[in-house]
Every structure is written in structure tokens, then in C-alpha cells.
Amino acid sequence: MSVEKTDVLVVGGGQAGVAMSEHLGAEGIPHIVLERGRIAESWRTKRWDSLVANGPAWHDRFPGLEFSCPPNAFAGKEDVAAYMEAYAEQINSPLRTGVDVTSVTRLESRQGFRAETSAGPIEADYVIAATGPFHTPLMPDLVPETPGLTQMHSIAYRNPGALPDGAVLVVGAGSSGVQIAAELRKAGRDVYLSVGPHGRPPRSYRGRDYCWWLGVLNKWDAEAIPGADHVTIAVSGAEGGHTVDFRALAATGITLVGRTQSCTDGKLTFSNDLAKNIARGDRDYLAVLDEADAFAKANGLDLPEEPEAREILPDPDCLTHPLTHLDLAQAGVTTIIWATGFALDYSWLKVNAFDANGKPKHLRGITDEPGVYFLGLPWQTRRASSFIYGVWHDARYITDHIVKRRAYLAYPGTPG
Ligand SMILES: Cc1cc2nc3c(=O)[nH]c(=O)nc-3n(C[C@H](O)[C@H](O)[C@H](O)COP(=O)(O)OP(=O)(O)OC[C@H]3O[C@@H](n4cnc5c(N)ncnc54)[C@H](O)[C@@H]3O)c2cc1C
Q1: Taking a C-beta distance cutoff of 8 angstroms, is the pair 243, 237 a contact?
Q2: CA 16, 107, 405 angle in degrees (round to 5)?
Q3: For 256-304, what is each residue's pLDDT tens digit?
Q4: pLDDT at site 1
Q5: Which of 100, 235, 387 to mutate to test the pocket of ligand 1 (most atoms within 8 A of CB)?
Q6: Same domain for 33 and 69
Q7: Is any atom of ligand 1 closer than 6 Å to the C-beta of 116?
Q8: Which of 320, 338, 356 represents a domain boundary (last residue)?
Q9: Which of 21, 85, 166, 234 is close enough to 244 for a disulfide, judged by CB 3.0 to 4.6 Å?
Q10: Which residues contact 326 (CB under 8 A, 6 or more apart)?
Q11: Residue 415 lies in a domain
């Protein structure tokens, strides 16, 4: 079979792949983007029905195109997919959908890589793994299969009506867990929400969205601190956007519990850490307000004061007297939703770009395997790396690196 050749092969046609294609195209670098599904497939089929972007449309976008919704609105997941599709068209991206990359290996004794794909082999000098930050759903093996109890990862959750009747335990209080719990409670379900350590920044403060504060406080560009403990962040753009407030969730009837620890004979045990986790979230929240106030003062910003943002609701009973155990059957729990994150799976990428634990080994996306790059990983270069806003900048950085490398390799040497 003849082998198609290109300079750069980008694997994945989500926001990372589209951003990469824009920068490569602008540099005139021949490339192909391969996507196994449709453009932005994750936004279409790996998110629940009502999901909206966590950041407002003026911020969660690429520089070259605005969303069709108002700038302060939070785009729905289908709008995000449509946006990425429109963007790919606008930049005339050589993006092919419905093509699965099954393996990438280094060529022997010459530069470049061979990709096996569902549409035939391709050889490329450079390969960008832009397959996303979230691959394999992580579900702790805590609760055995039990008749009458459905267990699913948040990736499989669609809407309240798709769940069996009965109460629901949502495990994990990051953005997914809190939004799913709130939606289920609104639909009339009895809901238990298992809350671990988290941050819960204000949605907005003194008339500015949190995304704006992260920008002016230079936190989007904050670099990952090796070994630092990055806790999950609970934010929401749902219903026009609001600060995630666990006491307010409890006031709607959600029972907050500590971390889910173990299960014996249908009885769950929760850690005695609920108050500690909520207090940590409060501290983070108040620290953002302090930093914002200090910045506004130091820079003479004329922003409306908002003292009421510092008012914390009274502790609900479930916080002062937390449940330590829950008999699932007795409580009528028929579904557990594990909003417990994801692991990476690069089994198709058979090159020397991983550490002893199989994790991507890279510096700012650049690996020790010359020509192989990662894009879109959480904290790849900065806090914003896995988000629409940040991946565009990381794609620029990787493109610059490829441009430099191509220049070195094209160097003709000194005559004589
Ligand atoms: C619930 C949820 C809400 C989020 N909300 C926001 C938000 O509001 N704002 C924001 O900026 N970020 C948000 N994110 C984070 C992030 O923006 C998204 O996860 C986004 O989808 C990541 O884009 P990506 O292009 O890096 O990866 P993906 O969108 O996952 O794209 C990777 C693509 O690669 C394809 N692929 C994978 N393997 C192969 C292969 N071997 N061959 C060919 N194709 C392959 C997949 O089909 C997929 O389309 C959210 C994430 C989650 C889980």
C-alpha cells in the first residue's frame, strides 16, 4: 500500500487539534489533523445534555472568532462543537473526520513516524498528540455490583430522566459533580453529594467574571508547581452562571457527605472530612476576594464594592452533624454517579515519551522523543492549558518549536 506523507500529523480534532492546525497553517507548514469521530466529538457525546461552558463566551474562545451567543453568556455544549467546526472551516483546516489513529511508531534509521490509521498509513516528521486531557473514566472499585443499583461515571450521565427512579449519590464535588447534583435535585430527586477537597472561586465579584479576575491576577498563566496538590475546582456556568455554594446546595435539599471511603454489605462509610473540605473551599473563596480587592485598590479600579459576597450562609445540619454511614437500600439510592475524573490512555503512541509510570514525560508539551509533542494536558504549561483559551497559546508555543527545529534541520552546513 502506498504511504501518504505529510510534515505534521495532529491526532485529535477537538479544540487542541483545531488550534494546532491554525498555527501550523499560519506558518505554512503542511499538516493533517485526524479525528476518529466528528470535530469536537467530546463536546458532543461525552458531556451531559444541559452542559454549558464553564467560562463566558467572551473568554472561552479562540481569538479569531466570536461565539454567536452574547459575550457574557455561557455557550451550550452543542454551540461549542459548532464553534469548533466553524473555526476549522474558517482556517481551512486539513482536518479529516472518522479516521482512527491506531498506532504511531518511530521510523527506523530516519527522521519521522509512521501512523497506522483506519484510512491507511501516514508518515510524518512530527506528531502532535492532541487527544484531550480526559481519556479513561476513573471509577474507584469501592461498591460491588449490586442488583437494583446502577453505577456510572459522570461521562455517561445525560439527564435526570435517563436514570432509574430513586435517590442518587453523586461522588465528587468538582464542576461536574456539583452541576449534576444540582440538576438532579431540581428534578425532584433525593441527592447525596460526596464532597472532597476543592476550590470554589466566585463566579463573579465586583462586576467581573472569575475568568477576568484570573486574567488580571495573572493566574491563567500560572505554571504548575511540580508536586503541588491541585485540588478540583467547582465552578458553574449553568443557569447564567453562579458561584458554587455548598451550603446553598444543602438548602435545596441536597445532603452533603464527606469523601466516600468504603462499602460493606451495601453500607457506605464516609470520611469525617466534610467540614474540613468545606472550610478549605471557603478559605480559597475568600482568598480570591481578598486578592481581587487588593488588586482593585492598588490599581485604582473603579469597581462596585460587593461586601455581601463575604457573607457565608449558616452551616446546614448535614454539615454540623455529617452522616458517617449510608445504607444505600434504606436510603433508596438506586444510582451512584462517580464524578471522579479521568486517566490518560496513550496506548496508540508507541514512542519514548513516557515516564516509568506511563505518564507523558514532557516539558511544556515537548518530549524527549524528537518530533513528538503533547497538547491539551492539564497544567501542560499553565493553569489554562486544558481550556479553550489556554490550548490556543500552547499550540502556538509548540508550533514555534517545530518552526525552529525545521530551521535547524534545513541548515545546509558551512561550505567547504
Ligand atoms: C464536563 C466538562 C466540562 C468542561 N467544560 C469546559 C469549559 O467550559 N471550558 C473549557 O475551556 N474547557 C472545558 N472543559 C475542559 C476541556 O476544554 C475539554 O475537555 C475539551 O474537550 C478538551 O479539548 P481537547 O481538544 O484537548 O480534547 P478533546 O475535546 O477530547 O478532543 C480530542 C479528540 O481526539 C479524538 N481522538 C482521541 N484519540 C484518537 C485517535 N487515536 N485517533 C483519532 N482521534 C482520536 C477524540 O475523538 C476527540 O475528539 C470541560 C471538560 C469536561 C469533562
Answers
A1: no
A2: 55
A3: 999 999 999 999 999 999 999 999 999 999 999 999 999 999 999 999 9
A4: 66
A5: 387
A6: yes
A7: no
A8: 338
A9: 234
A10: 169, 192, 257, 267, 268, 270, 333
A11: no
Q: What dihedral angle (degrees, nearest 10) is formed by the CA atoms of 19, 68, 222, 281? A: -130
Joined grid coordinates for residue 146: 449490586
Place of cell 499553565: 382
Residue 414 is assigned to a structural domain of this protein: no
Q: What is the mean pLDDT of residues 90-104?
A: 98
Residues 244, 142 share a domain:
yes
Please state whether 358 falls in left (phi above 0), alpha (psi between -120 and 50) or beta. Answer: left
Q: Which of 36, 102, 118 to mutate to test ligand 1, by most ligand atoms within 8 A of the CB atom?
A: 36
Q: Which cell goes with 136?
A: 479513561
Query: Using one digit for the tens of pLDDT, what is the confidence trace for 118-175?
Result: 999 999 999 999 999 999 999 999 999 999 999 999 999 999 999 999 999 999 999 9
Task: Decide if 114 contacts 105 (C-beta within 8 A).
Answer: yes
Same domain, 127 and 227: no
Same domain? 276 vs 147: yes
- Specify the ligand 1 atom closest to the Cα of 391: 26
Task: Write the CATH number for 77.
Answer: 3.50.50.60
Cell numbers linked to 218: 495573572
DSSP 266-335: TEEEE-S-HHHHHHHHHHHHHHHHHHHHHHHHHTT------GGGG--PPPPHHHHS--SEEETTTTTEEE
* 235 close to 203: Cβ distance less than 8 angstroms: yes
Ligand 1: which residue has its CA nearest to atom 24?
132
* 181 located within any domain: yes
